[in-house]
Amino acid sequence: MKKIIFFFLILFLTIIFFQLINRSNVEKKNELLKPLEENKQKKTIVYNSNIMKNVKYFSKDSKGNEFTILAKEGEIDLDNPNIIFLKEVDGLIKLIDSEKIIIDSNFGKYNTNNSSAIFSKNVKVNYLDNVITGEYLDFILERNTLIFSENIIFENPKNIVKSDVVEIDISTKNTKIYMFEENKKVNIKTKN
Question: How many Å apart are CA 42 and CA 21, to the nearest integer?
């Protein structure tokens, strides 16, 4: 009987001993893997993160005209890292020998290669005594042209003009206002 008790006692102690060794090995392995997992998670987060807060881009052409674009948030296009999608956008164009052009919109798209920008949704532009609102604005600094489209209202102290498109050459100040369809007319209302 003593041999049986002794045998079970040895067996019991052996099982406990191997359990403790196994648990210790698992804990050591987990401790060794923990920094690797944390590092892997950090790298994954950084690698997949393409959102930036409080974005600012600045460009200047050969003539000295400057273009600054600010946004609350920017997202890099993973397929084309030169394209940045923007939210809550403000733009400022400083022209040599002219007044500033101020642009606001809900969204934007900026190309870092050529400093072109597209502003969309609730676009508003202030220039001299003119306020232009619409849904879409295309601007390339090197081309020196602002092209507005979709629900355009061009307002100054004398007139309110409604059209489909307004093109402004910012270097010459020449402006074209027209409709997409030939049978539709630009609506001009004189203020009293």
Answer: 32
Structure-token pair, residue 51: 């959102």
The closest of 91, 101, 100 to 59, measured between CA atoms, is: 91
Structural fold of domain 51-190: lipopolysaccharide transport protein A fold (2.60.450)
Nearest Cα to Cα of residue 129 among 59, 172, 191, 58: 191
CB 171 within 8 A of CB 157: no
DSSP H stretches of helix in the chain: 2-48
Q: Consecutive sets of 10 residues in the chain, 192 residues long: mean pLDDT of each? A: 62 56 52 50 46 86 84 88 91 84 93 87 90 90 83 90 88 85 87 76
DSSP secondary structure string for all residues of 72-130: EEEEE-SS-TTEEEEEEEEEEEE-TTS--EEEEEEEEEEETTTTEEEEEEEEEEEETTE
Task: Give every CB contact of residue 126 below 8 A, 6+ residues apart in sequence.
Answer: 101, 102
d(CA 88, CA 54): 10
Under 8 Å between Cβ of 166 and 152: yes
Cα–Cα distance, 33 to 40 (Å, whole number)? 10
- Show me where the domains of the chain are located: 1-49, 51-190
